[in-house]
Amino acid sequence: MNRFGRRSFVIALAVTAAAALIPAPVGGAGTPAIRAARGPFSAEPNLHECLEPVPEAASVSGVTDDGQTITLDVLVLLDGISRSRGGDVMETAARAYRPLDIDLQTTFRRVRFRNSGEYHEMERAALEAVGGKRPRRFDVVYVMTAKDIHSQGDYSIAGFAFCIGGVRDPRFAFAVGEGLSPYEAALGDPTFSAKIAAHELGHLLGAHHHYGNCAEGDRSTEGGGEPSFCTLMWTVYVRFMSLNFGTLEAAVVRGHAVQFAAP
């Protein structure tokens, strides 16, 4: 499992192949990275198809003013996670989407990935588990794992999405996240794994990290933990990340759900 202390938090986006290192506060626990990958095995040649630098779909006239509730069908692959734990995490994650009139409908399937949690191995295992692309009638696939996700010795990774806007393509509509993150106990945040799930699904629905802000976060303490000053796509310090989308995040996520979620 992860070892805590004064660890830096890595923000990584494959579109720039760059990383920023931000030291954790003195005496505080290290904070994991939540990443957006660039496609299966991180070697997808059609980079623009995967990362969607400019959102293809956005609801600019209002997030929910059409009164339509969109169902997002999520296949959750439970890798070492119990059905009850998976249900609790996804039920909490769904709170982020309700204000956008998006209803997360989750179907659970148990899997057993025979790997250590290495980043690229998890990519491959997710695809192989469902035959190389998302199954019919599902919009996205989310792997919730008990493994400590890592890459090249970096164990600070908490989750990643195959593609920004991946819901548009059956090959890329996948995300992976820790469902028993040791950071939950270390940070005293019982919603941490749910934030990972909601955040990664947000990537699949077109949201970028830079859409996040620290002006529209939920500053209440509902659900336990400290006030969450920043919105869901914020990753500079995940401890302040809340379960709500900001205005820009919501418009893009809602737009993708309306345009690409299976009827």
List keywords for this structure.
alpha/beta; 8 strands; 263 residues; 6 helices; six-stranded mixed sheet; two-stranded antiparallel sheet
Q: How would you sum up this structure, described in words?
A:
It is a single chain. The chain contains 6 helices and 8 strands. The chain is of the alpha/beta class and 263 residues long. Strands 3-7-8-6-4-5 form a 6-stranded mixed β-sheet, with helices on both faces. α2 (83-93) links the parallel β4 (70-79) and β5. α2 (83-93) crosses α5 (192-204). It is globular and about 45 Å long. Residues 1-29 and 37-48 have low confidence and may be disordered.
In short:
This protein is an alpha/beta fold.
List strands and helices in order, with pairings.
Layout: E1 8-13, E2 18-23, E3 33-36, H1 47-51, E4 70-79, H2 83-93, E5 102-111, H3 119-129, E6 140-145, E7 157-161, E8 174-178, H4 182-187, H5 192-204, H6 247-260
Parallel strand pairs: 3-7, 4-5, 4-6, 6-8
Antiparallel strand pairs: 1-2, 7-8
Approximately what portion of the residues adopt beta-strand conformation? 15-25%
Topology pattern, helix = H, strand = E:
EEEHEHEHEEEHHH
* Strand order, sheet with most strands: 3-7-8-6-4-5
Shape: globular
Give the helix/strand class. Answer: alpha/beta
Mean of residue pLDDT values: 79
Distance between the termini: 40 Å
Q: What's the Cα radius of gyration? A: 17 Å
User: For the report, how would you describe the main beta sheet?
Assistant: 6 strands, mixed
Q: What is the β-strand count?
A: 8
Estimate percent helicity.
10-25%
Number of helices: 6
Note poorly predicted spans: 1-29, 37-48
